[in-house]
């Protein structure tokens, strides 16, 4: 690859990521700068990109919306887009959507380790009770 192609690719990266300041902010937020074709967007605001210029395994990626800030993780990707990101499917859901069944639940992210996590409430009495030492009346 020539020097001119490398400079052209750097220009594409800066243009797609919002110029010099936008690229700096994206690099600060995600530790990566890439350029590619927008393949689709899900209902949560995640944007999915592909660029076959990069190696297999690095040529498909997701960019999370700014509304989640720095609190993004892989559980925020719905299953249909997970299939495409992990090369289980060749066509993205924007081109070939999965059939929606009536028994399918809507996608929710994993909230473990957050303040909004699920904590079960038990209404049964415990089977094992704590031992209380007897009081000596000496």
TrEMBL record:
Keyword Glycosyltransferase among UniProt keywords: no
Protein topology in the membrane: Peripheral membrane protein
GO biological process, alphabetically ordered: response to oxidative stress
Domain of life: Eukaryota
GO CC terms in record: mitochondrial inner membrane; respiratory chain complex I
Keyword annotations from UniProtKB, A to Z: Electron transport, Membrane, Mitochondrion, Mitochondrion inner membrane, Respiratory chain, Transport
Locations listed in the record: Mitochondrion inner membrane
Pfam family, one: NDUFA12
Cited InterPro entries: NDUFA12
Subunit structure: Complex I is composed of 45 different subunits.
Function (record text): Accessory subunit of the mitochondrial membrane respiratory chain NADH dehydrogenase (Complex I), that is believed not to be involved in catalysis. Complex I functions in the transfer of electrons from NADH to the respiratory chain. The immediate electron acceptor for the enzyme is believed to be ubiquinone.
Entry similarity comment: Belongs to the complex I NDUFA12 subunit family.
Protein name according to UniProt: NADH dehydrogenase [ubiquinone] 1 alpha subcomplex subunit 12
Source organism of the structure: Elysia crispata (lettuce slug)
